[in-house]
Amino acid sequence: MAYIAESSENGPVGYITAAIQNRSADALMHPQRFVYVNHIAVDPRVARMGVDSALVESVRAEALEAGCASLFADVWDFNIEALAFFEGQGFGRVQHRLEQRL
């Protein structure tokens, strides 16, 4: 799924892409149908004007209609603004991905 936000003054000002995923049950997890947010971007000229929230809400509404139980998004640890945004949207931290450079 994909949504584009438009402004009458500026044309396209943001977008979000997401995909419904079905995870099969395994020894540690129940089966799950969820939406994974692949990418979201908003024009800096309209930052903090609710465009990003409206885009997430569009995905959330479609996910509910499709019978999904959750939304997921990945955010880099250094991206404090994105972490704060998603937490403000009701997302909670559920996993840490660790790396060891070789």
Automatic annotation (TrEMBL):
InterPro entries: Acyl_CoA_acyltransferase, GNAT_dom. Keywords: Transferase. The keyword Transferase applies. Pfam families: Acetyltransf_1. One of its GO terms (molecular function) is acyltransferase activity, transferring groups other than amino-acyl groups. Coiled coil: none annotated. Residues 1-102 form the N-acetyltransferase domain. Signal peptide: none annotated. SUPFAM superfamilies: Acyl-CoA N-acyltransferases (Nat). This is Acetyltransferase (GNAT) family protein. It comes from Streptosporangium canum.
